[in-house]
Give the backbone structure.
Amino acid sequence: MTADQGYAYSKIYGGLEARGIDPVIPAKKEPIRSRVPLRRFRYDARHDILKCPMRRILRSQRRIEHGRYFYSRATDCRRCPIRGDCLSKGRVNKAVVVSDHHPALLRARRCKERWSREDARLYQRHRWRSEGFHGEAKSWHGLARAVRRGLQTMRIQAFLTAAAVNLKRLAAALLALLGPWRGISLLAALAHLLAATVAASIQTTRPELADRPA
Ligand code: SF4
């Protein structure tokens, strides 16, 4: 499966791994907000602990919606030479949030560093083949917003949008094929029928866009 960096989140990597799907999604580098960033804390999945740059252990103590807080011991941090850079103002120990699928994100980052030529080719293909269509579907056919709630209705909206885009292309190809013979009644009628179907699909997916130019 290919996708752009907008989907490069631990939750998505974890979900794909659980389904046995190999993603070609370029993992983002960790944003550096601190002089001692999260990547300097090593997660040990076997023992379910974090190790800080000074090799002190942080343990999981509190659960939040998408992960857990890991805390160091105040006694470990008290004499640490880098505590000024590592700890937030007023804190006596370190608190780090690790998301539930953090190991999957780390694997994806390592995998990105070893992308093969085939991976790079697949991602390049994704960019011209999928992103252009997504942009068209979102900008002109309302796919940027769900018209109704729920996965099933969203699925219907996506199918109708894809049908509208395909029919639009088919109508354009037919008209180009007709060229100077556009006056021939049967083919012209067919083209009109296709155009009407496109308009109906657009009306269904996003009524307010129905009057925009194709
Ligand atoms: S301040 Fe605490 S958590 Fe941070 S590096 Fe030092 S010992 Fe480790």
